[in-house]
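User: I'll paste a sequence; please echo it back and then give the predicted structure.

Assistant: Echoing your sequence first, then the prediction.
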Amino acid sequence: MTDQVLVLSGGLSHEREVSLRSGRRVAQALRSRGVDVVESDVDSGLIARLAELGRPVVFPLLHGEAGEDGALREVLTLLDIPFVGSVGSAARVAFDKSIASTVVAEAGIATPRQVALPHETFRELGAAALVQALGDQIGFPMMVKPSRGGSALGCSKVSTAAELPAAMVGAYAYGAVAVVENFVEGVEVTVAVVDRGDGPQALPAVEIRPDSGVYDYAARYTAGATRFLCPAELDDDTARRVAKTALAVHDVLALADLSRTDLIVTPEGVPTFLEVNVAPGMTETSAVPLAVEAAGWGLGAMCADLVAVARDRGVRASATRPDLPVLP
């Protein structure tokens, strides 16, 4: 492959350092396949850099709002630059947990009970009354998290009403809307879906066992803080349901090339959707590279195939969501 690939990472989100680590790893993996790679941060010189390179294929590895809310992908489309991954409109829906969960639930996929509360509403209507209502409607324990964000930043497990106001403040530190949902007991897994040109394929599920009991930012990106099992310790029928659910999420949200769906498998074996990521981490402690290895693929080969698909496909218009399937 002689085409240049621009690996984009960094940015100004709270997940900048994780993004830089992902970018370095993907760049190294592509170079191992002989790909001509240019690494770039996202700054005021990006458009000029793209112009100098001609028409590279962009591999976006920006985590958090700057890279996953669809805006950057819309800019690349405007500039007639092909890129790996979902188009802006699909990324925008997937990035907002309250919207994505609603769309996914309409498709017949299990989701937690959820309420989305803007900061203004929580402040103006009074925290005490809303805490009581949330406890009555959602129940304890519950999860509180920013509606738009990643890497578990601002996420808290809340076991009592007394803990809820501080958890809401923590979530609002990372976004204007907080999502409150019932805590789903079960086995936490994450499933990567990859399309190397022959249609989406679910990779082996990765089971997540954080030492702290909560898969927060530290558990995600501190070496040794979490035990990952790949493939997950699931029976064959449950593993198939998990893979089917991740593929359905990828399809119903009109995602492309690469996604990672986070699920809880309940004691009854029901995969329950938590969230989906259109620019999953590729660091040394990230789940997707583990799944790639378990599938018998090389990370470099997979990334090079994704670049080839993006190059051959060219620039795309915004996605339109297909009719919502209902899972049996």
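The radius of gyration is 19 Å. Confidence is low (pLDDT under 50) at residues 321-328.
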